[in-house]
Write a structure and sequence with these properties.
Elements lengths: L1 E7 L4 E4 L2 E2 L4 H10 L5 E3 L1 H7 L7 E3 L11 E4 L10 E8 L8 E2 L8 E8 L7 E7 L1
Parallel strand pairs: 1-6, 1-7, 4-5, 4-6
Antiparallel strand pairs: 2-3, 2-8, 7-10, 9-10
Length: about 130
């Protein structure tokens, strides 16, 4: 079971017309700090966001298959998410409403919120990081 990382708006939107709804360098820096000494996987679409300040080895993957326990997968496209192999979810909330046509596919009512913190982003006044476990 692996760890999913995703970013959502106030309505759990992730993408609009096949593009991310938002981005913030502070989120990517936090992700890299969290993933120290562990593998971080992501789609090719997301990889370019991390190139300038990557401090961990990033693997490009089309989906979550083959990711080992305690490894991370950063998903911007909800179709890559497979709830059956996830043990933990790290959600970053933009705390704004953006246009979206693709949404976070996991019903969090089945999960337990075990951590929450707010921080200031580079382009967002407030970003909320939540950690969910089964």
């Amino acid at each position: 079971m692996m760890i999913l990382i995703a970013c959502v708006d106030d309505r759990m939107g992730m993408m609009f017309h096949h593009r991310r709804v938002s981005q913030d360098k502070a989120v990517y820096e936090d992700i890299l700090n969290m993933c120290q000494k562990r593998n971080l996987y992501m789609e090719k679409y997301s990889y370019k966001l991390f190139l300038d300040f990557a401090t961990v080895i990033i693997h490009v993957a089309d989906n979550m298959r083959g990711i080992q326990p305690d490894e991370y997968f950063f998903a911007e496209n909800p179709i890559t998410i497979d709830e059956n192999i996830i043990e933990k979810i790290v959600l970053y909330h933009w705390n704004r409403r953006y246009p979206a046509d693709q949404y976070f596919p996991i019903n969090l009512e089945k999960w337990s919120l075990v951590g929450r913190e707010d921080f200031i982003g580079k382009s967002h006044e407030k970003i909320t990081k939540e950690i969910w476990e089964k």
